[in-house]
Amino acid sequence: xxxxxxxxTEAESPRFGAxxxxxxxxxxxxxxxxxxxxxxxVQGAAGAIAAAAEAATYRLRGGHGRLVYVGAGTSGRLAVxxxxxxxxxxxxxxxxxxxLIAGGEQALLEAVEAAEDETRxxxxxxxxxxxxxxxxxxxxAASGRTxxxxxxxxxxxxxxxxxxxxxxTRNSPVLAAASHKIALPTGAE
Length: 189
Known about the structure:
Layout: H1 24-44, H2 46-60, E1 67-71, H3 73-84, H4 86-90, E2 97-101, H5 122-128, E3 136-141, H6 147-158, E4 162-167, H7 173-176, E5 180-183
Parallel strand pairs: 1-2, 1-3, 3-4, 4-5
C-alpha cells in the first residue's frame, strides 16, 4: 500500500493551531461545535448505516452468528468498548461477540507500535476463530487505510462473513474492503 498523503483525519486544522492558549470557555465551545459537526456527518450517512444494520440483523437473526469488531489504536479500543457494552446494554451473549485489535490485549492499555501494519496473520486468525457466513465483521479505522483492518476485512469477506467498514475518510482502502461502507468524513482531528 503506498504511503501517499496523510488522510484528512491526521491533518492539522489551522483553526486550532494555538488551542493551548485558548480560554476554557472557547475550548468548550470548540468541542461542542466539532461534536455538532460530527453529528451532521453521521446524519448524512444514515442510509448507509441503516443498510448495514439491516444486513447485519438479517445475518445474525438465526442465533448462530457473531458480531466481530476489528480495529487498531484508538479506533480499535473504541470498537472493543462498544462490543463490551453489548451484553449489559442489550443482553447480547458474550459467546456471540469477538473483538480483534491490532497488537492483541496489550494494545487495549498502551500503544503497540507498528501493530496496525501487521497483515500476515489476518486470515489465519479468522479461520482459527471459525469466522464464516453467519458472522458480521465490522472494521473501524479513522484514517481509512489501516493495513490490519483492511487485511482482516478482506479475509473475512473471503470466508463468507458480512463485512462492514467505518472510516472517517471517503474512498479509502478500508471502505473498499467491505460489503457495506460507512464513510464519516469528519475532517482533521
